[in-house]
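[Discussion] Sanity-checking designs against the backbone

I'm trying to build intuition for which residues belong where. Below is a structure token string of 111 positions. I'd appreciate it if someone posts a full sequence so I can compare it with mine line by line.
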């Protein structure tokens, strides 16, 4: 059974940084694309960033230059380094692969 577990969320001041992790289990994910999504209160879920099995990354315009997605295939883990955080980045962040979703981790950016 595929399972995804996110961690690393929390409360941070504007301009701060957080690093999210997504650990996958149940199969080997090294060849599959993975992605980070977020959903803010009252809004639809949106794509934040994706990364291919080979490491090619794509980002939403709203996070380009501030967020960085990466993966460690040996550890079945994907990361999202978030810098220069803004209040509008506040959301529940979830990872997805092969149509499976994690439970999400809350990020709150507030002073």
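Best answer:
Here's mine. Compare freely.
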């Amino acid at each position: 059974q595929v399972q995804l577990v996110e961690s690393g969320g929390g409360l941070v001041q504007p301009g701060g940084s957080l690093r999210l992790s997504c650990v996958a289990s149940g199969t080997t994910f090294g060849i599959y694309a993975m992605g980070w999504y977020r959903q803010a209160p009252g809004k639809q879920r949106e794509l934040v960033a994706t990364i291919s099995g080979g490491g090619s990354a794509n980002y939403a315009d709203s996070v380009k230059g501030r967020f960085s997605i990466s993966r460690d295939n040996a550890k079945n883990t994907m990361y999202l380094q978030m810098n220069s955080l803004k209040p509008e980045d506040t959301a529940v962040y979830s990872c997805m692969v092969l149509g499976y979703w994690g439970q999400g981790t809350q990020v709150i950016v507030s002073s």
